[in-house]
Amino acid sequence: DGPYEHHDEL
Amino acid sequence: MNLFRLFGDMSHLASILILVHKIQTTRSCRGISFKTQALYVTVFVSRYLDLFYDWVSLYNFFMKVFFISSSCYILYLMKMKFRPTNDPSIDTFRIEYLLGPCAILALIFHYKFTVTEVLWSFSIFLESVAILPQLFMLQRTGEAETITTHYLAALGAYRAFYIPNWIYRYWTEDIVDPIAVTSGIVQTALYLDFFYVYFTKVLQGQKFELPA
């Protein structure tokens, strides 16, 4: 998974 | 989570609380663009769909719920509770000029071609320009209540804080999110004019007035 598989920033 | 992002998020939170406070205490939404507020609801709803299938943290969860619910609440205040104080005749920015290009950009630039990822990109692009109807309204009327300018300053500071956050994350985690970074820089740049007047006038105790 790439770092932006999910978005942790708002 | 680093301090820059925390300051950014807190300043975003503060901006919303300032706006609600302004509307509640003055019992008026004069000077606030309904279109900008409606765009924020669109931004939050299309970005935070991952609430239903992805768990990041308790902090992340509550912030997302807060942003969606508070932005809807602001629309309610403007359209129902204090409706007579909302003047659509000065809120004339054509938002289709923002929605269309953002939709096209999202179809071109995204990390994965799925409904939620394209909506995520759309929300990032839309957020970067969502303040334009508000700034346009300010430009048209040439003045703003001081509390409204505090709202805008906090909102501008939010994305400004995200920029050092991205630099920090690049150094410490080797992470770069080109879509968020590009839009974030555009979004912050849109506030530069406003910040100039805010720092040179409002923070010196004068009224926010644009030169004629």
From TrEMBL, chain B:
PROSITE patterns: ER_LUMEN_RECEPTOR_2. The keyword Transport applies. InterPro entries: ER_ret_rcpt. It is found in: Endoplasmic reticulum membrane. The chain crosses the membrane at residues 52-76, 97-113, 179-199. GO terms for biological process: protein retention in ER lumen; protein transport; vesicle-mediated transport. Keywords: Endoplasmic reticulum, ER-Golgi transport, Membrane, Protein transport, Receptor, Transmembrane, Transmembrane helix, Transport. It is a multi-pass membrane protein. It comes from the Eukaryota. GO terms for molecular function: ER retention sequence binding. Pfam families: ER_lumen_recept. One of its GO terms (cellular component) is endoplasmic reticulum membrane. PANTHER family: ER LUMEN PROTEIN RETAINING RECEPTOR (PTHR10585). Belongs to the ERD2 family. This is ER lumen protein-retaining receptor.
